[in-house]
Amino acid sequence: MRYLILTLIALCSAFPLLGQHCGNCDDSNKATMINKTNVSAQVLKEGKKQSINSDYYLVYSWQKKPKIGMAVLVVDVFRSKDNKRSDDFKITANAYMPSMRGSHDTGDRPMKLNKNKRHLIDVNFMMLGDWEIELKVAKNSRELFSGLVQTKI
Which of 69, 68, 76 is nearest to 46 (CA)? Predict the structure, then answer.
């Protein structure tokens, strides 16, 4: 009888864990699901302009093709009126594997701004698979834009 009671207690305490989100759901709206702010994330394309607002846009690229190990992500922010680089924004990046959400997340890390007004961050790809880097663009501590860089290693 004691084993039955202990088994029931163990099952009851494990039950809430079974209902938690594991990150493996096939959700067509993963971009908004992972974004915890009111700004919905957009999937970005390498080398393509992505509007932040009516006055600015950004373009991302990789320093070299990503593979296992460290890769440098480069984000350039430009003014729309004259196509010159801007350093008016703070950008953070969070790299993770969507299929293993929580296991390899880096958390929001600030991108470094170099003397050429380019935002850079090292991304450590520690295993093969699909990866996303969530970029958050803020000005005056207010998030204006969120975008997803998707890559396969």
Answer: 76
Residue 54 is predicted with a pLDDT of: 92
Angle at 34 between CA 32 and CA 35, to 5 degrees: 65
pLDDT tens column, 42-82: 899 999 999 999 999 999 999 999 999 999 999 999 999 99
Please name the amino acid found at residue 92.
T
103, 120, 130, 151 from 126: Cα distances, Å: 11, 19, 11, 13
* Helix count and strand count (H, E) for the chain: 2, 10
Q: Where are the domains of the chain?
A: 45-152
The DSSP element (H or E) to which 16 belongs, if any, is helix 2-18
Q: What is the mean pLDDT of each run of 10 residues along the chain (153 residues)?
A: 66 53 42 47 92 95 95 96 94 93 86 96 93 95 94 94
Are 145 and 137 in contact, with CB atoms under 8 Å apart?
yes
What are residue 9's DSSP bridge partners? none
Q: Out of 3.40.50.300, 2.60.40.1930, 3.30.1490.20, 1.20.120.1730, which CATH number does the structure's domain 45-152 have?
A: 2.60.40.1930
